[in-house]
Structure to design on (369 residues):
């Protein structure tokens, strides 16, 4: 059996990186001899995480356009040109059988070069509203894998589109008591999981901090990922109110490495509405209050949250309203078991836990393996 080579292009955020890693892991599980390479940038999370996962990592010089005027935008045409040249030489050297892009500015140049060189290309789009790279290149890609049926009508060439879902590592079932034990919490008490993506969310953190006393009065436990920027402040606040003493009722982390256990331990999630988060919620069927980041590219988090809310798969709370209405919303949901169960059921109905396997199948078929 001939060795296969697959090039992944995507990064900048966890939403673009982690689906690529999930697909790569599935391919590697089936074909341990596969040569897998990632293309990303030097200064984003992929430069640290990809090598940690054991994959070859190469860089190109590229960044996105800033929405507000910035002097860095003047360099954008030069960066695109350089990234195209770098991508050409990398692809010529790697000789991939398939190039897979997971969206964002990082994936644009490698996908374009692959198309010009006649190499099979796959695009994986995480968001309900497709990003600029997907919209631009999807008509010519060999296959486009989207997360939601509603995305199909937003792309020009619908013949090459497959609704596969978002690849995620949070698929396996973990009992509640096992998740609670990991966080040293009481599984019999209502538990709230709070996080804002890999970087945290200042508005959510402020709202939860302001509600701590009321949540304590309701005998609620909290698993709280603050992000690095707010970690010290929130940690001091939690210590000041004695929430970290035995038995603890608030557990604070910069970043949660054991997210499947956190989902298992909680009754309700308060979080942003990035594509990876939505995929994790729907894969397991977790009731959530979604607070979309208002400055996300193309407002895609709002679109993701609205899609979930329309399906009854989550509750939407806008960022501007989170400080005023978060406590009320959380109180209503935490103590309405029937409503939470219905939200969880609708979320699960949207989930596609087989997404990584489906896309790995497609990639391996395109390699001829």
């Amino acid at each position: 059996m001939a060795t296969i080579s697959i090039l992944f292009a995507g990064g900048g955020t966890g939403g673009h990186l982690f689906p690529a890693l999930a697909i790569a892991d599935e391919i590697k599980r089936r074909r341990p001899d596969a040569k897998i390479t990632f293309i990303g940038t030097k200064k984003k999370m992929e430069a640290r995480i990809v090598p940690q996962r054991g994959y070859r990592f190469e860089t190109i010089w590229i960044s996105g356009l800033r929405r507000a005027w910035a002097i860095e935008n003047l360099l954008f045409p030069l960066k695109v040109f350089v990234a195209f040249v770098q991508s050409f030489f990398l692809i010529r050297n790697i000789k991939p059988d398939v190039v897979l892009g997971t969206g964002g500015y990082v994936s644009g140049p490698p996908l374009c070069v692959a198309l010009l060189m006649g190499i099979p290309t796959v695009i994986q789009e995480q968001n309900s509203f497709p990003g600029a790279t997907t919209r631009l290149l999807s008509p010519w890609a060999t296959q486009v894998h989207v997360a939601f049926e509603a995305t199909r009508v937003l792309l020009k060439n619908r013949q090459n589109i497959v609704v596969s879902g978002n690849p995620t590592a949070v698929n396996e079932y973990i009992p509640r008591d096992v998740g609670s034990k990991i966080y040293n919490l009481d599984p019999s008490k209502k538990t709230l999981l709070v996080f804002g993506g890999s970087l945290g969310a200042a508005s959510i953190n402020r709202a939860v901090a302001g509600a701590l006393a009321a949540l304590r009065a309701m005998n609620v436990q909290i698993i709280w990922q603050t992000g690095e920027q707010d970690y010290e402040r929130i940690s001091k606040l939690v210590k000041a109110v004695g929430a970290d003493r035995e038995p603890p009722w608030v557990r604070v982390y910069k970043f949660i490495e054991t997210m499947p256990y956190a989902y298992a331990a909680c009754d309700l999630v308060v979080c942003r509405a990035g594509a990876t988060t939505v995929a994790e919620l729907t894969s397991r069927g977790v009731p959530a209050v979604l607070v979309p980041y208002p400055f996300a590219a193309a407002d895609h988090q709002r679109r993701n949250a609205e899609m979930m809310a329309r399906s009854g798969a989550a509750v939407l709370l806008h960022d501007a309203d989170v400080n005023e209405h978060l406590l009320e919303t959380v109180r209503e949901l935490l103590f309405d078991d029937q409503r939470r169960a219905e939200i969880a059921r609708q979320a699960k109905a949207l989930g596609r836990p087989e997404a990584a396997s489906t896309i790995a199948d497609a990639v391996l078929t395109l390699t001829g393996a």
Summary: The chain has a mean pLDDT of 90. The CA atoms of residues 27 and 302 lie 32 Å apart. The longest helix spans residues 76-94. DSSP finds 16 helices and 13 strands in the chain.
